[in-house]
Design a protein that fits this description.
The complex is a heterodimer of chains A (about 120) and B (about 150).
Chain A: E1 7-8, E2 17-18, E3 22-27, E4 30-36, E5 45-50, E6 53-59, E7 69-73, E8 79-85, E9 96-100, E10 103-109
Parallel strand pairs in A: 2-8
Antiparallel strand pairs in A: 1-8, 3-4, 4-10, 5-6, 6-8, 9-10
Chain B: H1 2-8, H2 13-28, E1 46-51, E2 55-61, E3 71-75, E4 78-85, E5 97-101, E6 106-113, E7 118-128, E8 131-138
Antiparallel strand pairs in B: 1-2, 2-8, 3-4, 4-6, 7-8
The chains are: A mainly beta (about 120), B alpha+beta (about 150).
């Protein structure tokens, strides 16, 4: 069974972290991950693959003037981090990611040999 | 208070349920209230409100929203933020399995009461990087006026 296994969240010491919501889809050629990252510009997010662990981390950057005082906040932490374990048939070296309107779309294809191949049956 | 004493007794059915409830909840809300998921499911987008002495800024965290569907309006001091967040499914030939579908999709409409001194005539709303930022000025406080007596 191919699947994305556990997600683990590691918060650094003394730091409030929020967990981005993700959608994960798998089709025959690979896995697509969509993550909600509002207020995170391209240079504030890092997608890392260490062996079989995929980590998305970064922080929200809001441009606001110094003297702004918060009155009501539903989002309080700026840093986020979420990790996934990739199964071995995925080929992280060929992954691609795009960040648009606060949504990160990451595509990790399956390696060639792992794709479903139809085997011809010879009769006779 | 009442519930805390009930669960501390430890061996009855309610404390078991309480422990189960807390375990399930801790799976979804690891850090509170910092987790973006600690907001109730119906409350998309998450909103932060901040102010200076002469302006109010409202940040709505709404990634993946089609800007043409965004509808921001003020009616009698209530700010309303509405729009549509399209469900994005990658097109692929063949079957697609879904392993996680945590992101919000569908239409949303959140209302926010503005403070009395908000000036609705001068509003700026900007959507970038998934954040809708609405700024409006506050009415200047009237200077105390001296009234001359005839």
């Amino acid at each position: 069974m191919n699947s994305k296994q556990e997600n683990s969240v590691q918060a650094r010491n003394n730091r409030n972290v929020w967990i981005p919501s993700v959608d994960i889809f798998e089709d025959e050629t690979g896995i697509t991950l969509l993550a909600d990252l509002p207020g995170v510009p391209k240079d504030a997010v890092a997608v890392r693959i260490d062996g079989d662990t995929l980590t998305i981390e970064g922080e929200i950057r809001l441009a606001c003037p110094e003297e702004l005082q918060a009155e009501y906040a539903e989002v309080r932490a700026s840093a986020f981090r979420r990790s996934f374990t990739l199964s071995s048939e995925l080929d992280p070296g060929r992954s691609e990611s795009v960040l648009n309107d606060g949504v990160l779309k990451l595509r990790v294809p399956k390696s060639e040999r792992a794709q479903k191949r139809r085997i011809e049956v010879k009769v006779g | 208070m009442f519930y805390a004493s009930l669960s501390s007794r430890g061996d009855n059915i309610f404390s078991e349920l309480e422990r189960l409830q807390q375990d399930v909840q801790s799976l979804f809300c690891r850090t509170s209230p910092a987790s973006i998921r600690s907001v109730a499911r119906g409350a998309f987008p998450a909103i932060n409100v901040a102010s200076t002495s002469n302006s109010i800024a409202i940040y709505a965290f709404a990634p993946g929203v089609d800007p043409s569907t965004l509808d921001v309006s003020i009616d009698r001091g209530v700010l309303s933020i509405a729009g549509q967040c399209a469900k994005e499914v990658p097109d692929a030939n063949g079957p697609v399995s879904v392993y996680a579908a945590e992101r919000f999709a569908g239409s949303f409409d959140r209302k926010l009461a503005l403070p009395e001194d908000a000036n609705p005539s001068n509003i700026d709303a900007r959507y970038s990087d998934g954040i809708l930022r609405i700024t409006l000025a506050r009415k200047q406080k009237a200077e105390p006026k001296r009234i001359d007596i005839q």
